[in-house]
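Assemble and predict.
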Amino acid sequence: MVGASRRPGKVGYMVLYNLKNSYRGPIYPVNPNATEILGLKAYPRVLDVPDPVELAVIVVPAHRVPEVMDQVGRRGIKAAIIISAGFREVGEEGAKLEEKVIQIARQYGVRVLGPNCLGVYSPSTGINTMFLDPEKQSLPGNGPIAFISQSGALGAALLDVAALRGLGISKFISIGNRADIDEADLLTYLKSDPHTRVIAIYIEGVEYGHVFRQALENTTPVKPVVVLKAGKTSAGARAAASHTGSLAGSYQIYNSVFRQTGAIEVLHTEELFDVAQALALQPPMRGDRVAIITVGGGSGVMATDWLSELGFQVPLFSKETQQRLRKILLPIASPRNPVDITGSGTEDHMAESTRIAIESGEVDGIFLIPYFNIATMTERLADLMAPIAQKAKEMGIPIVASVTGGQKSWRIAKLFEAKTGIPVYPGEHRAARALWALRLYGKWLQKIGRL
Amino acid sequence: MVGASRRPGKVGYMVLYNLKNSYRGPIYPVNPNATEILGLKAYPRVLDVPDPVELAVIVVPAHRVPEVMDQVGRRGIKAAIIISAGFREVGEEGAKLEEKVIQIARQYGVRVLGPNCLGVYSPSTGINTMFLDPEKQSLPGNGPIAFISQSGALGAALLDVAALRGLGISKFISIGNRADIDEADLLTYLKSDPHTRVIAIYIEGVEYGHVFRQALENTTPVKPVVVLKAGKTSAGARAAASHTGSLAGSYQIYNSVFRQTGAIEVLHTEELFDVAQALALQPPMRGDRVAIITVGGGSGVMATDWLSELGFQVPLFSKETQQRLRKILLPIASPRNPVDITGSGTEDHMAESTRIAIESGEVDGIFLIPYFNIATMTERLADLMAPIAQKAKEMGIPIVASVTGGQKSWRIAKLFEAKTGIPVYPGEHRAARALWALRLYGKWLQKIGRL
């Protein structure tokens, strides 16, 4: 930790504070004016650190980074994260400094993340190089989503959102100026990372288009990649240029690359996680036919609208399947599709309808709409649905759910999600878009002969 | 309360229970087999109730409703809410029964809401005829949004959502089969309701198109009307037909009517409240130019994209205004537009930038992006921003905000919203759509010469 500080509030203090709280391995603060920081023995220079070291985290002022990088290289450390700002993003002088740092790193074979970044957060290893104040924001726990962000501030805020939503993260990587390691490198790494099932990326622009394209092409057959591209309009591209200095480029080109490589492009930050969660929990969808099973007729109508607009079919069930459904449902229920179990329907009605729909062979995906604010719809649904969800997964039939409701409903919905692995969204439109992503990825895998 | 029950869980019990808990005036349970229910003296028949009565709430089985309505009429009660189901929605027999009930009501001049509805929830008067279980769902407090729903179950679930979001409701009206009172009647009523500033409607289809159209035309010059229309696609229309029995009709016609009458059509349930809240809190927007003031560059880029796609401009500020901004901002900040105060920017930077933008005369609306997870952005922003928001409102310049963050951020965001009257949304796309609605309503008022 080069540039560790004793002064609370300073970046060099916060990084050490957070790292110490989450990482179980040895940490060596480097500071020429301290012998101990936060209870850890401090060293005047990188060269003075005794043990073998795997990673250097650098927060010293920009002009001191070349000297530090030289010591890092000489010390045999093979990886460095440069948190410090004041490089390419501040103009020509900074760009020259950045080049110099990277030259030194290359000379010693050091791979560099940053500069001008938050670094890495990895819940499974406890590595957390971010200077975020835990009093002001939370971090998500361990989980299947890797998240790469070109914007540090946005990335941090989105980690806070992920924590609120109860989503799990395998790795968060803030790439900053990406003077060495870039999105393409990270895709290649995450493709083989056993902790990562889905990769989510926020980008404004990439520097080496063909390399990025190649990395996408190599990754999507193995794991889904969800991309949020900012700077799509000309005004947005101008704003991106003054933010990350990215040439946002022609959006048409990005859009084509995403379609041609099977990357799933999402529309906004909410959808980035909505879709990543669906892809992490549910199998890709093999066809366009969806069964809607709802306690609320109105929500069934809206789900039908959204699914139709996204290219799905909501086919009427066959006479036989309607017959099977009719037997287990209330007389006032509708077995057609949407299956409206009505507000008097029970957990059993919803679970059994789902089982019948899966077994019918007439649909490729299931869209559940349980309202947890009604008396007959309780936590019991999760227990009934868990084995059915498991069976559907094995059959390659994805299930998503939409819940409209308040605090009490969401407590149950989150339990339901945890027990069944069925992602739950606050609205038909969001669940429909999640299913759309599962279908888009399914189509891609079918196209390349992997499904 | 005709059909009041002593058995917890029954509709006739829940309605009385909820009504008793919220309404301060006298309530008369009617039940031939009870002398007292929930501590209230009960009467065998409506005709036996002693005092003048203003409203009859009817929950008896469908076949008994004609007899009850006759007594309601003879008793001189001028308004009735029929909660009971088993009318037109169950087929021809039910339709005949419904007709009979309405004939009796008309004979005595009784206006009827329902049947097959939840009735009314009015926080200001305490009238609550809904049979919802307070253990399972919450209700919003008093506020400026009137909400009409053709679907009872969806309406209830959305009230729960409104409570979770801290939105205030003036009246919630579930119209059910709308055998007498329909959307058009309610628009006419709510137009003059002093507690209502915005009207939000969920509909699948209307029966008398020209009457509805006329009611919209009369209402929108006075108050904004936000409409969520379900059953837009052919599959959705089919689902609507089996839900509320509505002929969803050609969506193109609805869409034209909304555009021609100045009603604001939204895309989904989240947006229904997003937009209603914006219209309740902020003035209609007079032009297309927006200033974005952000602590996060990435969010500024995404906001620019969304605004551009929705027809707004994010113009570069003039040299003079950039000069004024540069004086108060950090050297690393960007004063162009988006104004990026950066993650090191303070509450003062955001407030002062807003003031300068408003005074510049160069923009018609403001889009704020405070990240409350960063150290320098605290609750203090609300105090600094309150007078500026007030001034902007007087100038007819709307302000919306987007916050990306977790639980701690949202606690501050909600305080900010309450103190400043600036609606806060969880994402640039949603704040942009809220501003779009303010502009759409502004354009409408300009077109009819009211702005």
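The mean pLDDT of chain B is 96.
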